[in-house]
Design brief:
The protein is an alpha/beta fold. The chain has eight helices and eleven strands. Helix 3 packs across helix 4. The mean pLDDT is 92.
């Protein structure tokens, strides 16, 4: 008998309700962020970019339109199926677990954006993501991780709120337990009750520095927002790291 535990993200990310809850993510802000990163990194024409945890592919599509060869992967089969209709010779999508090696020594830039890191309850699994990202880069390639500023988030955590999207009221409860934020999401739709969870490990800059050193990555830049202003652990909303593979 298969007793494999189902991870929280396996059901939630494939659910249509996940995309309803987060439908108002700011595309204009995302494009500005990507433009700022590209202007900072100066990849050459046709550079190969990997979009880790690509979701429904908005970043991959935008980067491809800017002339780069892009591959996006995600664990969500539903999201990748949605993305497949946009594939071209220079834009591809595949189902893949970010903990596992992808294609070694192939990409000039690896993007891991919008807090798509720290999903796993076991630290060793999160560190596998760093290793896999490093292995897929060419020598001198850049890894960009866009993560929350965990110290600020911990201090300002909103315990409960309600968000209404498309007529559905999402009741959200948050707590910090065992070094991670756990968010419980409950709602009803068409007279049926639903409940999901999200887990996100609270990693500090120091934690990332240790993981990067261990896996042959050197931090070149640390930014605190999507305009690429300097990181401040008290005031910055984001922790954006750009590391180079030795």
């Amino acid at each position: 008998m298969d007793t494999k535990k189902t991870e929280w993200f396996e059901s939630w990310f494939d659910s249509p309700f996940y995309h309803i809850l987060y439908k108002d993510r700011d595309d204009k802000e995302a494009k500005l962020f990507l433009d700022n990163l590209i202007n900072h990194l100066h990849p050459g024409p046709g550079a190969k970019i990997l979009d880790v945890a690509c979701g429904k592919g908005r970043h991959s599509l935008y980067l491809n339109r800017k002339g780069f060869t892009v591959c996006g992967f995600d664990l969500s089969k539903e999201s990748i199926l949605h993305n497949k209709k946009n594939e071209t010779k220079t834009l591809t999508f595949t189902v893949h677990d970010m903990r596992n090696p992808f294609r070694k020594d192939e990409f000039n830039i690896v993007f891991n954006l919008f807090s798509s890191f720290g999903y796993f309850d076991d630290h060793a699994d999160n560190e596998k993501v760093i290793l896999a990202n490093a292995e897929t880069l060419v020598s001198g390639g850049s890894l960009v991780i866009d993560y929350m500023n965990s110290k600020k988030v911990s201090k300002e955590l909103i315990a409960e709120d309600v968000k209404e999207c498309r007529g559905i009221k999402f009741f959200q409860k948050r707590k910090i337990d065992s070094g991670k934020i756990i968010k419980n999401i409950s709602f009803s739709d068409k007279e049926k009750e639903y409940a999901f969870e999200e887990h996100l490990q609270l990693y500090s800059l120091e934690d990332f520095e240790k993981m990067f050193r261990k896996h042959n990555l050197t931090i070149r830049n640390i930014f605190g927002d999507y305009l690429l202003n300097k990181f401040d652990e008290v005031n910055s909303d984001r922790l954006i790291l750009i590391a180079e593979k030795a």
